[in-house]
Amino acid sequence: MKKFKYIALFATFIFVGNSLFAQADEDLFGDDGIEEVNEVSAKSDLSKGSLFENGSVKIGGSLGASISTTTTLFDKENGKNIGENIKDTKLSPSLSSFLSVDARPTQTLRMYTKFGIAYPFEVKAITTPGGTSVKDWFTLKEMFTDFSFADRVFFRFGLHTVTWGTGYFFSPVSDVINTSSIDPENPTEQVNGALNLRTQITFPDSRNCVWLYVIPSTDFAAGTVDSYARSTGLAGKYEFVLGGWELGVGGFWKYQNAPKAMVTASGSVKKVSLFGEVVYQYGALSEWQKNTNWNGKTSILQATAGLSYYWKDPQINLMGQYYFDGNKKDFAHELGTYGHNITLNVSFGKLGNAKNLTATVFAMANFGKHSIDDALSRTDLSAEETMALNAAKLSNNAKINHVTASAMLNYSPFDNFSISAGPNVSWEDYNKVPVTSLKLTVKLGGGKF
Questions:
Q1: Least crowded by CB within 10 Å, which of 87, 155, 246, 417?
Q2: Is 237 helix (H, G, I), strand (E, B) or coil?
Q3: What is the secondary structure of 328-339 as a DSSP string?
Q4: Which of 343, 344, 362 is nearest to 410 (CA)?
Q5: Within the chain, which residues score under 50 in pLDDT?
């Protein structure tokens, strides 16, 4: 039911997890829209990631193949010894590929499609109304076309990821339009975008620009043109440079939905890169779905700030981010990121003089989010909401960790093969003993092409 769309968001968070994020084709002030280039010196170099020659078509992508295991070493709650835990360890194979077709028949027209194929180690059958059974192995990630007017106004229409925000592990600004959020444990994987019409207006002799978005409803059974228009969202953002900092201000509006205002910033102090985002939202999604009256809604604030620093000689990269999520009304936030979140990642490009040894240390902590039992204690739940929470509580994937930390050692004895292993510690409850496990991943070939 439309009234309970946010229950689906919660179910996605509990059963599937947030989709993982990679920067899409455009970054702040670095859009990959249409550019007219008269000379192409490396038209056959597919590593460049874009082509500018008339009539050019690039087909590329990536393929990943791996086998992973997670063995519980100590869990006071399950009552099993280490031998039993090792016996219960399961292999998790993965074989997937993303393919992209980037066609530029003219200097001012681009057509792009990106889709994924995954080998169905776990077959999930989906039955359509017509009775046809299909396997859940195909994913359409992006499909859009770029065109322009007068070399000042650039359009993009279709399904594509929007990278409004500056955050690395969390980006509430990008979440305004995208249909999934960054997974902090896999921040380089691309999130899911939305069908929209984007317009970029540039200003001569300036890095400033305006972004306008029309996000139409994908429910074409909504009825009349009027009802369809009411289901369409509008968003805009103005980006400008001030004192060496890249700043952005914008907003989102949709009829009888939570309006939002946002601010982004990115820059540097000496060699430290800094970034931040702020989103103000009037009313939670659940509040607007229950009551479209403008009175009595909750003011919600989301804010994040982070930094990155790279030591070139020892090849150490540090990324850290703080995120405050003030939304405790919607389950996806209440059970996910509500409260204070801190994430830290340190990667070592080499260990000593060994070129085939690298390491990564990751830690993520939350202070404030609620448990499923806390959510069930709310007095404003409907029967459907209570049913969804109870179903999630019975699920094997219903654990909500407050702290996750890992240290992985990566060894590559030869090209296109690597082994990663290391401990993982997670706290579901600060008052309980943490669960300690051992992660092992073997990557078999794969890469970009």
A1: 87
A2: strand
A3: -SSHHHHTTT-E
A4: 362
A5: 1-54, 125, 127-134, 396-397
